[in-house]
Design a protein that fits this description.
Blueprint (H helix, E strand, L loop, with lengths): L5 E4 L4 E7 L7 H23 L5 E7 L9 H8 E2 L1
Parallel strand pairs: 2-3
Antiparallel strand pairs: 1-2, 3-4
Length: about 80
């Protein structure tokens, strides 16, 4: 079973945040998990939005992009996969 590293919620959305070593981002297993998570987010968003909830998004974040200068909004802009 897949368990994300982090889930974040804002006033407008929910995010599955998955940091990975930068050299692993193109790994076949990582990409398959990302594809499955994106599909899950799509289905969860449909359900949430039809019931007054928020959309879900998946972020695949390279480890070396995580630093004190980044915030969730910056990660969303750079690493959201749809």
């Amino acid at each position: 079973a897949y368990e994300p590293d982090f889930v974040a919620e804002t006033k407008k959305a929910k995010y599955i945040c998955e940091p990975k070593r930068a050299d692993m981002l193109n790994d076949e297993i990582v990409q398959k998990k990302a594809d499955a998570a994106v599909k899950w987010c799509h289905h969860a968003s449909e359900h949430e939005l039809s019931n007054g909830g928020k959309p879900w998004y998946y972020l695949l974040i390279p480890h070396d992009a995580i630093n004190d200068g980044k915030n969730l909004q910056g990660f969303v802009a750079a690493y959201k996969i749809q």
